[in-house]
Amino acid sequence: MTSTRTQVHRLPERGAYDRESIYRILDAGFLAHVGFSVDGQPFVIPTLYGRAGDKLYLHGSAASRMLRELSQGVPACVTVTLADGLVLARSAFHHSMNYRSVVAFGIAKKIEETEPKLEALRAISEHLIPGRWADVRGPYDQELKATSVLEFSIDEASAKVRTGPPKDEEEDYSLPIWAGVMPLNLKPSEPIPDSPPEIPLPDYAKRYQQKSF
Amino acid sequence: MTSTRTQVHRLPERGAYDRESIYRILDAGFLAHVGFSVDGQPFVIPTLYGRAGDKLYLHGSAASRMLRELSQGVPACVTVTLADGLVLARSAFHHSMNYRSVVAFGIAKKIEETEPKLEALRAISEHLIPGRWADVRGPYDQELKATSVLEFSIDEASAKVRTGPPKDEEEDYSLPIWAGVMPLNLKPSEPIPDSPPEIPLPDYAKRYQQKSF
User: Fold this and answer.
1) Got the DSSP string for A83-111?
2) CATH number for position A62
3) Is residue B20 part of a domain?
4) Which of A25, A77, A158, B46 has the most CB within a 10 Å radius?
């Protein structure tokens, strides 16, 4: 899944192009930043997604500018980043971030047929919180009409990952400066119910609470 | 800070254009997704940033394609998103995400002079972890040369925020389905030292550990 578009020019040791690395990061994340251009002006819009094979599913209001633009088949870029920590080196220069990211290029198309549309919505829902879809009131026809669902085909993608401690200049290791990693973790906290107390928290929601990204 | 470019077309009640809302979100975040186009192909690249007034500072290797492209003064979009929770409604349709995001449009330019460059690097460092900059070995001349620092001027920006419980259809509230918010929090965890144990964790790093985003 590589070409000059996705070549990681800098720090090539951080780059990965194999499907497995790319899918692993896409499956760990849930928030994508989608890039597209309108009259030469780039837009970057955050959105949830689901994945099946080399397709990403995006959805939203039929009135969404992002979805309307993307459904015209314009070149797009979907980026998913998970921040794993600040890397504090002894020198300002070697400070860094631990992270996992995927930059994917491709083109999106609108899913028009009801069944594939429902299937894609299910994929997004299951990606976000497995088990929820079967539990909720499914979409009415007019709700489905008010929803745009896009299938983004990954033509090319690359992953970048940085892990581990700072890498300092040899002579800096003797400096009396604290160095190390300040890990960052995205974590679910205590659910805030909107339903009455007699409706218990479902098991899949309990599992979600244990999730790490 | 508005024009048709930043008009939030959908759910306008979630949109905010005042500087204070925009700055608050930019100051809470630390990871931006930067969009730019090369020959009609949009790129979305994650990067750290700092803010001073309506300027965002970006930095990286002088060899970075993103920084080289942006420094040509092309139209760019910088988006910062904080995911605050999954919103589980009774209907599939009303599922949502609690989040805070800023979409900012503008143009970047390279900071060439040493002093403003150091000042911008300090701003990025202080944005990420206040107190660290004064503690570390500052950049050598050749390190500064190997680093590109850009100043992105926010021409227009909009903020979008969703908070609170699901909003369901009136008739769905009686369904026996658990509904509510699964909050998500990005949190620092126990630091992983790379320096010897006799160098204590600095106070600013202890404060960072208490941080919420």
Assistant:
1) EEEEEE-SBGGG-EEEEEEEEEEEEEEE-
2) 2.30.110.10
3) yes
4) A77
A95 in reach of chain B (CB within 8 A): yes
Cα separation values, B108 from A63, A115, B101, Å: 31, 45, 20
| Residue B28: domain span | 12-83+97-164
* The total number of structural domains that make up chain A: 1
Distance from the B180 Cα atom to the nearest Cα atom in chain A, whole angstroms: 4
Is the CB of B148 inside 8 Å of chain A's CB atoms?
Answer: no
- Residues of chain B in contact with residue A34, where contact means CB-CB under 8 angstroms, are 44
Mean per-residue pLDDT of chain A: 93
Per-residue pLDDT for chain B (213 aa), expressed as one digit of tens each?
555 666 554 444 566 678 999 999 999 999 999 999 999 999 999 999 999 999 999 999 999 999 999 999 999 999 999 999 999 999 999 999 999 999 999 999 999 999 999 999 999 999 999 999 999 999 999 999 999 999 999 999 999 999 999 999 999 999 999 999 999 999 999 999 999 999 999 999 999 999 989
Task: Say if B28 falls within a structural domain.
Answer: yes
User: Helix, strand, or coil here: A52?
Assistant: strand
State both tokens at B120. Answer: 């911008």
The CA distance from A128 to B182, in Å, is 11
Please tell me the distance in Å from B168's CA to the nearest CA on chain A.
10
- Given CB atoms, is B199 within the 8 Å cutoff of chain A? yes
ipTM at complex level:
0.93
> Where are the alpha helices (H) located in chain A, listed in sequence order?
19-28, 65-70, 114-128, 141-145, 203-209
Tell me the whole-structure pTM to 2 decimals.
0.93
pLDDT value for A9: 46
Q: Does residue A70 carry a pLDDT above 80? A: yes
